[in-house]
Design a protein that fits this description.
Low-confidence stretches: none
Mean pLDDT: 87
Number of strands: 3
Order of helices and strands: HEEEHH
Number of helices: 3
Largest sheet: 3 strands, antiparallel
Radius of gyration: 15 Å
Distance between the termini: 21 Å
Strand content: 15-25%
Helix content: 25-40%
Structural class: alpha+beta
Shape: flat
Strand order of the largest sheet: 1-2-3
Length: 77
């Protein structure tokens, strides 16, 4: 996916914000905030992940909500 200059700038700001939150230690030393997008819908996903076990502690939106919002025609292909 090609990003516009504005989208690239917004993405850079978001990455810096996530790094700042993780460096602040607000989630403790064992958890970190991650940001990605759902490959099916393209919607943003925020996860709190245990750095040691890589276990997802919390995800917004939850997987079941992402699946509910999928286009039924797209998922049947």
């Amino acid at each position: 996916q090609v990003l516009t200059p504005r989208e690239r700038a917004d993405q850079a700001k978001l990455i810096q914000a996530v790094k700042s939150v993780n460096q602040s230690g607000v989630f403790g030393s064992s958890d970190e905030l991650t940001f990605s997008s759902d490959p099916e819908s393209g919607r943003p996903i925020i996860r709190l992940v245990n750095k040691d076990t890589k276990e997802v502690v919390r995800q917004i939106p939850a997987d079941y909500l992402l699946r509910l919002s999928e286009d039924p025609l797209r998922s049947s292909r």
